[in-house]
């Protein structure tokens, strides 16, 4: 969960997640939306993968990234549980 919080603490990574919410994309397609080099985008994608917020799948010569909501579901459940007071 710590890796997810760290990954979500960056504006660029949150924007990448918003893009992947719309559709699965290659690293190049994602990079086209930003004013930074592809190595920087690859670094952000690697951190998102480590946090299990995105999945990647090799398709031919491309790696396609997709949003993974499992960790987000876990985070939300934890936050709701944290907010709920016990008698």
Automatic annotation (TrEMBL):
Domain HTH arsR-type positions: 1-87
Keywords noted in UniProt: DNA-binding, Transcription, Transcription regulation
Entry keyword Phosphoprotein: no
PROSITE patterns noted in UniProt: HTH_ARSR_2
Top-level taxon: Bacteria
InterPro entries xrefs: ArsR-like_HTH, HTH_ArsR_DNA-bd_dom, HTH_MetalResp_TranReg, SdpR-like_repress, WH-like_DNA-bd_sf, WH_DNA-bd_sf
Alphabetical list of SUPFAM superfamilies matching this protein: Winged helix' DNA-binding domain
Listed GO MF terms: DNA binding; DNA-binding transcription factor activity
NCBIfam families, alphabetized: HTH_metalloreg, repress_SdpR
Name of the protein in question: Winged helix-turn-helix transcriptional regulator
């Amino acid at each position: 969960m710590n890796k997810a919080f760290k990954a979500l603490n960056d504006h660029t990574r949150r924007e990448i997640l918003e893009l992947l919410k719309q559709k699965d994309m290659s690293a190049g397609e994602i990079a086209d939306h930003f004013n930074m080099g592809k190595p920087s985008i690859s670094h952000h994608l690697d951190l998102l993968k480590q946090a299990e917020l995105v999945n990647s799948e090799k398709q031919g010569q491309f790696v396609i990234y997709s949003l993974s909501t499992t960790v987000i579901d876990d985070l939300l459940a934890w936050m709701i549980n944290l907010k709920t007071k016990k008698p």
